[in-house]
Fold this protein.
Amino acid sequence: MDHGPIWRVWFPMIAGLCALLLVFMFGSGPRGPARWLGLVLGLIGLSGVIVARYTLGQSFSIAPKARVLVTRGIYSRIRNPIYVSGEVFLIGVALMLWRPSILVIFLVLIPIQILRARREAAVLEEKFGEEYREYRRRTWF
C-alpha cells in the first residue's frame, strides 16, 4: 500500500489547516476584515501548495531533477505553483497577524524563488527540450 498521499497531502493539509486556524483564532493583531482576508488568502495558498505537491507525486524533489515533465492539473496553468501558493500563504499570515515585518520575508523570498525557478527551468529544458519550451510558452511563472 502506498502511504505517499498520506504524507504528501493529508498530513500537510491537516497540520497546515490547524496551524492557520490557530493563528487566526489566537494570533496577535486586530480582528476585522483584514484578518478574514488573511485567512482566505492563507487557505488559498495552503490549498495551492497541497494540490501542487499532490500533482507532482513522486516527481517532487528539493534539488532540481528532471524525472517527468508534469503538465497536468495546476501545472497546466502555472509552472511553479508551490512558489506562487507559498507567497500567497505568507501574505495571508501577514494580514492575519497585521505584521508588515512578515512582508519583508515575502520580499526576500521572491528573488530566491525566481532563481530557483530558473535553475529548475534549465534542468527541465536540458532534459525535455522543445517539449518544455512549448510548455513554458503556454504557462505563467
Notes: The mean pLDDT is 89. The chain has one domain: 4-137. Helices lie at 4-26, 33-56, 81-97, 100-128, 130-137. Residues 90 and 106 are 7 Å apart (CA to CA).
